[in-house]
Write a structure and sequence with these properties.
By secondary structure, the chain is an alpha/beta fold. 49% of the residues lie in helices and 14% in strands.
Length: 512
C-alpha cells in the first residue's frame, strides 16, 4: 500500500524524462567510461550505469536535479542520506541470508530482522527530512510522501507487527539439558543459575596466567542439525510466539514500499558523483552548476578541465590545465590546431564531457559555464584499421563520419579528433571542408581537431583555437588552448629557428 501524496522520482521530474537516449559507444572516446566506472565503484548493487545512458533533454529536468544536489550539499541531509543507505544495505544483507539459509525459523528470524531495519531506516529518514526541511521540489515531495507513508495503515501495521513478534520472541526462555548424547529442552522455570557458582568455585584456581580451555562458538550463519532441532523443540514449547513469527513472514512478504526502494537506488546517482568529485574539490578544482539552454547556442566555460584526466592525476589534480572557451552569434564549431601533444585532444574531450555531464544534471568541471542542452553527443576519433570490414583506414573514417552526420541534428554535439590524418593534406582539406560545411549547415555545436590550418577560417561558423607553446621555447607545450588564428607556419618557423634551420640561418652557415 503506497502513500496518497504524489511522488515519482528523485531523479526524474516527470516519468517521460526517464527514457534512454544515450549512446555509450562515445563514452570511450571522451574517457567517460573511465569516469563512470570510477563513480559507480563499490556501488554495483545499485546498477547506476543505466542512468548514465539516459541524458535529459529538458532544461526543467536538469534544474530539478540541480536543486536536489544543492540540498544534498547540506551536511545534515547528506548524513541522513548516508545513514539511510547504510541501513538499507544492512536490510538487503539480512534478506540475502534469508535466501541462503535452510532452517525455517532461522530464515524467518532474518526476515524479521530485515523488516526491523527497514522500519528504523524509514522512520529515521522521515524524521530527518521533517527537521531539515530541504527546499528542492524533489526532496520536498519525497519528504511529504514519507511523512504520509509513515502514518499509513501499511506502515503503522508493519511497526505494530514487528513490535508484537519481537516482544513475544524476547519473552522466550528455555533450558537445554544435555546428558550423554541426549538433549532435553524445557521451559525455563526460575531454575538456579549455576554459572555464577561455577565461576566462584574455580576462581581460586585462576591465579596467574592459565590456559583458556573454553570452546568458542563459530560464526557460521547456518545452524547445524543439533541447533536446528533444539530450535524446533523451543518452537513447540512456545507455539504462540513462533506462530506469530510464521504469520508475520507470510503476511508481510511485500513490506518494502516500491517508491522507497526506487528512491534508495536513485539517490545514489547523486551520492556517487559527489563522492567521486569531493577529493578533486579538496585539491582546489572547481565544479559548477551550468546555466543550461535548449534554445541559445551561446556556449562558454571558464577554468574548465578534463574530468578523467583530473581523476587520473589525483592527488595532484590541481596540476591539471584549465581552459576557457566561448561561442557567440553565428559561431558553432571550434577548429583546433597546433603542435602535437599540445592538449588538443584533451580540449576536445573536455568539450564533449562538459555537455554530456550537463545533460545528466551533474555539476560540471569548470568555475563557471553556460552550456547548450544537446539531443545527442557524437564522436569521431581515430580508430585502428579493422581487417574484418575489408576497408582501408581512410575509407572507414568516411563511412563513420557519414553515419554521424546522417544522425546528427541542429541540436547535436559532434566532437571530431584528428580525423582524416591517414590521408594526404589535399584529401584531408577536401573532406574537411565538406564535413565542416555540413556541420555548419546543420547549425550543430562541435569541435574539429585537425592538422589542416586552412580549415580554421572556413566560414563564420568556425572559430580557430590553437594549442600554445612557451614563447621562449616553442618545443615546450603550455597545454593551453586559446582563441586565435591558426599559426602552424609560425610554429614551424619558431622550431626551425630554435634548431638553426631557417632559410637565413642555413644560408649564413653555407656562406661561412
Amino acid at each position: 500500500m503506497s502513500s496518497a501524496v504524489p511522488f515519482s522520482s528523485i531523479l526524474f521530474d516527470r516519468p517521460s524524462d526517464a527514457s534512454e537516449r544515450g549512446d555509450p559507444s562515445m563514452f570511450a572516446d571522451l574517457n567517460l567510461d573511465q569516469v563512470f566506472a570510477a563513480v559507480v565503484a563499490g556501488r554495483d548493487e545499485y546498477d547506476l550505469m543505466s542512468f548514465f545512458r539516459a541524458p535529459l533533454r529538458d532544461v526543467r529536468a536538469v534544474k530539478y536535479r540541480h536543486q536536489v544536489q544543492r540540498d544534498l550539499a547540506d551536511e545534515a541531509l547528506s548524513k541522513a542520506m548516508a545513514d539511510f543507505a547504510l541501513r538499507m544495505r544492512e536490510m538487503r544483507k539480512s534478506l540475502a541470508l534469508v535466501r541462503k539459509l535452510h532452517t525455517r525459523y532461522q530464515k524467518e528470524y532474518w526476515f524479521l530482522d530485515a523488516a526491523s531495519i527497514y522500519r528504523r531506516a524509514v522512520s529515521a529518514l522521515s524524521d530527518a527530512l521533517t527537521a531539515i526541511n530541504p527546499g528542492s521540489r524533489g526532496f520536498t515531495a519525497f519528504g511529504r510522501y514519507l511523512a504520509d507513508y509513515t502514518q499509513s495503515a501499511a506502515f503503522t501495521g508493519l511497526v505494530a507487527d514487528i513490535d508484537g513478534v519481537t516482544s513475544a520472541l524476547a519473552a522466550v526462555r528455555y533450558c537445554v539439558n544435555i546428558k550423554g548424547n541426549r538433549v532435553r529442552v524445557s521451559r525455563y522455570d526460575d531454575e538456579a543459575d549455576y554459572s555464577a557458582e561455577v565461576q566462584r568455585t574455580f576462581a581460586k584456581f585462576a591465579a596467574g596466567a592459565v590456559k583458556d580451555y573454553r570452546i568458542g562458538f563459530g560464526s557460521r550463519a547456518e545452524m547445524d542439525h543439533v541447533e536446528a532441532r533444539i530450535l524446533d523443540l523451543v518452537a513447540r514449547l512456545y507455539p504462540e510466539a513462533f506462530g506469530a513469527l510464521d504469520e508475520f513472514c507470510a503476511s508481510r512478504a511485500g513490506y518494502l514500499d516500491k517508491t522507497i526502494r526506487v528512491f534508495d537506488r536513485e539517490v545514489q546517482f547523486y551520492a556517487a558523483y559527489q563522492d567521486f568529485i569531493a577529493p578533486m574539490k579538496a585539491a582546489g578544482l572547481e565544479f559548477c552548476y551550468p546555466a543550461m539552454s535548449a534554445a541559445s547556442k551561446e556556449t562558454s566555460a571558464h577554468d574548465s578541465f578534463d574530468l578523467a584526466l583530473a581523476a587520473k592525476l589525483m592527488p595532484r589534480a590541481a596540476a591539471v590545465v584549465r581552459n576557457d572557451f566561448y561561442l557567440g552569434g553565428p559561431e558553432r564549431v571550434f577548429v583546433v590546431t597546433g603542435p602535437n601533444h599540445g592538449g588538443k585532444t584533451t580540449f576536445a574531450r573536455m568539450f564533449g564531457q562538459l555537455h554530456y555531464l550537463a545533460s545528466l544534471g551533474y555539476p560540471v568541471p569548470a568555475r563557471e559555464a553556460a552550456l547548450f542542452l544537446p539531443d545527442r553527443v557524437f564522436t569521431h576519433f581515430e580508430r585502428e584499421e579493422d581487417l574484418a570490414t575489408l576497408r582501408g583506414k581512410f575509407e572507414d573514417e568516411l563511412v563513420r563520419i557519414r553515419g554521424v552526420l546522417d544522425q546528427a541534428t541542429g541540436d547535436s554535439i559532434v566532437v571530431m579528433n584528428e580525423s582524416f590524418g591517414s590521408t594526404t593534406l589535399r584529401d584531408a582539406l577536401f573532406v574537411g571542408e565538406r564535413v565542416l560545411g555540413r556541420m555548419s549547415a546543420l547549425g550543430l555545436l562541435g569541435v574539429y581537431v585537425t592538422f589542416v590550418d586552412e580549415l580554421a577560417s572556413l566560414n563564420e561558423a568556425c572559430v580557430s583555437m590553437v594549442g600554445t607553446v612557451v614563447p621562449d621555447d616553442p618545443a615546450e607545450r603550455t597545454y593551453k588552448i586559446i582563441r586565435k588564428p591558426a599559426d602552424g607556419l609560425a610554429y614551424a618557423a619558431a622550431i626551425a629557428g630554435k634548431y638553426g634551420l631557417t632559410y637565413r640561418q642555413l644560408m649564413e652557415r653555407r656562406a661561412s
